Structure prediction request, 310 residues.
Amino acid sequence: MASTKIHIGKFNFENCFMNAAGVYCFDREELEKILNSEAGTFVTKTATLSPRDGNPTPRYQDVPLGSINSMGLPNLGFDYYLEYLLELQKTHPDRTFFFSLVGMSPEDTHTLLKRVQESEFNGLVELNLSCPNVPGKPQIAYDLETTEKLLTEIFSYFKKPLGIKLPPYFDMVHFDQAAAVFNKFPLTFINCVNSIGNGLILDDETVLIKPKDGFGGIGGEYVKPTALANVHAFYKRLNPSIQIIGTGGVLTGRDAFEHILCGASMVQIGTTLHKEGPEAFKRITEELKAIMDEKGYKTIEDFRGKLKYL
Ligand code: DHB
Prediction:
């Protein structure tokens, strides 16, 4: 049968699927459920220097075609996740995990990354440049000047494998400009895409979530065409050493197959995992393997990036 093993940088994963940051990753209890599922690995909830309560509730709602959220970076703080990750390195030395981070300021981000650099952590860092939900804080990666400055500073001291979680871009010129910036740095991966920021979903005459008068990040079926476009636009523009994690609108094995055709190595699942729970990994993996078997693809490399044009 087909294999869904992949590698990111020097790290090997038994399965190309994992959670998307924010879903099933708030605490040890949730992360353990991903650890013990069919997923190849997990990413922790984006950690800030200090723990945060996040925005007022209700702040996440599933809807028929996806989800809307304005969580506001609730998390248990950097030390909590680092301690758990270091423990897992001892109990699961054959596995590699992703540590999602961002500071509430550039100074905080440097403090966090310097602590990771000094620590025993030997996995991958996913630096979140795309949180749309903290009032007054723009999505960092929509400001390419700030992003380039931040990455220049980071890579002066940070020597461990690092990737960035990106918001969706919607213009060919922005793909060109963003890729030109990312290609200047020894990034291990980019992750496309975070939620489509600041959408509105109504129920009768009323918004669905409390923060920001109902504005929130959109996930699920709504975002797949945008996600595929971002994965493929960057696949065509980035140095081949920068791998791509595809995130957005993965409900089925077919959706994952499309992400990989567009150039994704790993595939993350957010809204569907929230709706279905960690059992989703088994179903979606089996669906992807069935498609690969039918088409005669034995490995992910056999079809990654091989999207056909008219
Ligand atoms: C949150 C949402 C995001 O999409 C993100 O990248 C980081 C944080 C949040 O609101 O907690």
Summary: The chain has nine helices and 15 strands. The chain has one domain: 6-55+73-196+221-302. The chain has a mean pLDDT of 98.
